[in-house]
Structures are given as C-alpha cells and as structure tokens.
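ARCHIVE CARD
CATEGORY: sequence design from structure
SOURCE FIELD: tokenized fold
FIELD CONTENT:
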C-alpha cells in the first residue's frame, strides 16, 4: 500500500512540477515578448528623435544655403569693402553701405546687455535665494509672462510710453538708440531670469552650507560662492539673451527711428540690420533686394561669430 501511495504522490509531484514549469515557461515567454515590445518601442522613439534632429539640422542648413545663395552675389557686385564699411545706404542711387546699421545693431545690443543683464541677474537671485515662497509664486509667473508678450506689443508700448518720456526729459524726438536699448533690455529679461534662476538653484546646498558655516553672511555667500558656481549657466542665459536682442525686429522698428546713420549719442536715430531688411524687403527688387539678402548674410555671420565667442567663454567658465 505504501509503495502504491508513493507512486501516486510521485505522479502528483510530477504533475505539479510540470504545471509549475509550464507557468514559468509562459512567464518567460510573456517576459521575452514584453522585452521585444519595449525594444521595438525604444527603437521607434530613437528613430523619432533622430528624425527630429535631422529636421532641425536640415532646416538650419537650408536657411543658411538659401541666404548665402541670394545674398552673396550682391556682396561681390558691390564689393565686400564698400558693402560692409560703406557709410551710405541710398537704394535709388544704387549705393549700399551697411556700416551704420552694423554699428546700430552692436550699440543696441550692448545697451540691452547693460540694462537687461544686471536686472535679470538680480531678479533671478531674488527669486532663488531671498524671496519668500508666497512672493516667488507671484514674481516668477510675472517674469514668465513677459516671454509670452508679442514683440510688436513691446514696440507699441515703447512708442507710446518710452519714446515720449525720452523726448520730454532729454529731447531729440524720443525715437532713438536709447529707446531701442531699453525695449531690448526688457525683452531679454525672461530669458536671463529663467535660466539664471535654474542655474542658481542647481548649485549644491553643501556649497551654501559650507560658506555659512565658515561665518559668511547670506549675501556674501550669494556673491562669492553661489554666483561663481553658477556662472556657466548665467553666461549661457546672457548668450541667449544677446541672441534675442540682436535678432529682434518689430519692436526696434517702432522705437529706433529707422535712420541709417552712425549714432553719435544715445539720442540719435538708428536703423539696425534687422530693421533695414524688414522695412525695405516689401518693395525691393533687383540689386536692392539682393543687397537686403546680403545684409542678412552679414547679420548671420555676425551672430555666428558672436555665438562661437560667447559659447567658448561659457565652456571655459564651466570647466573652471
């Protein structure tokens, strides 16, 4: 009887083991199937990312080639020296010199940096380190809202408010390099504030705690420890802000005065390169139109050189 019962128990155990093995095999098959699905999904996502990167690169390449094809012939017809260093822009007489516009673009950008960078950096420090949480909830959305305002609204505000104020207190009509610098300084604030705040918050707390433990005050810690540690991110914010300032068109057209002359003071009327292209492209033809594309070529080269220099500075700051 015992032998028979053992045989029955062995048969039951064998059945249980077979059933367990079948379940394990099924689990393994399901797991392998799930892995294949995940692998397929990851490959599809990688392909989408790759195609997106290709679209971005192709777009930049296409725009670059188009601008150079359309603008380069005019530079050679006019002459590189006469076009870049020429001080007169008279399309009716076929005289095309963009030096005053290059100077205007540089001056307006420098003015925007002088106004926008300190205000943006101090605002970022205030939001990240000094402001109470309830105030951060008010200030941060307000700054972010600035980024969503169309540039023509900035220009309209400058035309109605800033230009009359400059005319009232300084004279000269108001449309000027100073008005353009103020508007551009305000327009680059959201970029500088947002990225600088993120960089400051990314500094490890150990840096701050170590400085405070050494007896430094909160303000000393901010300027001697936190800002130097976050300088690569802050410089990146400045680079992006400069990119926006130098490429801005509509707001500048409304407040700058649009006179192609080399400014001798902040109250002189100016015409940056972007404004020159936007103002005359609608009715230009022939060499005049090609000269406007050539202005775009110079602007493109100018921005590329500026970005390369600033990125090198940012990279070196990040290494230190």
């Amino acid at each position: 009887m015992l032998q028979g019962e053992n045989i029955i128990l062995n048969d039951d155990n064998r059945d249980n083991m077979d059933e367990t093995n079948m379940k394990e095999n099924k689990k393994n098959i399901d797991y392998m199937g799930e892995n294949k699905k995940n692998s397929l999904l990851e490959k599809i996502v990688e392909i989408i990312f790759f195609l997106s990167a290709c679209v971005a690169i192709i777009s930049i390449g296409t725009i670059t080639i188009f601008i150079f094809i359309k603008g380069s012939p005019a530079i050679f017809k006019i002459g590189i020296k006469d076009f870049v260093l020429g001080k007169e822009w008279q399309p009716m007489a076929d005289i095309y010199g963009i030096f005053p516009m290059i100077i205007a673009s540089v001056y307006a950008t420098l003015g925007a940096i002088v106004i926008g960078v300190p205000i943006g950096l101090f605002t970022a420090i205030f939001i990240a380190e000094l402001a109470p949480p309830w105030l951060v909830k008010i200030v941060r959305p307000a700054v972010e809202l600035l980024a969503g305002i169309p540039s023509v609204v900035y220009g309209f505000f400058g035309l109605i408010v800033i230009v009359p104020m400059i005319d009232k207190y300084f004279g000269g009509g108001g449309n000027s390099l100073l008005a353009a610098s103020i508007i551009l300084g305000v327009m680059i604030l959201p970029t500088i504030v947002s990225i600088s705040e993120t960089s400051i918050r990314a500094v490890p707390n150990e840096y701050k705690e170590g400085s405070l433990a050494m007896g430094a005050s909160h303000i000393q810690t901010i300027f001697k420890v936190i800002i130097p540690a976050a300088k690569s991110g802050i410089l990146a914010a400045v680079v992006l802000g400069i990119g926006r300032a130098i490429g801005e068109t509509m707001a500048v057209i409304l407040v700058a005065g649009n006179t192609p002359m080399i400014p001798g003071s902040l109250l002189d009327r100016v015409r940056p390169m972007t404004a020159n292209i936007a103002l005359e492209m609608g009715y230009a033809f022939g060499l005049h139109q090609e000269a406007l594309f050539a202005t775009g070529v110079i602007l493109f080269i100018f921005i590329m050189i500026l970005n390369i220099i600033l990125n090198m500075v940012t990279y070196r700051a990040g290494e230190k």
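CARD ANNOTATION: The chain has 13 helices and two strands. Residues 28 and 34 are 10 Å apart (CA to CA).
SHELF: design records, drawer C
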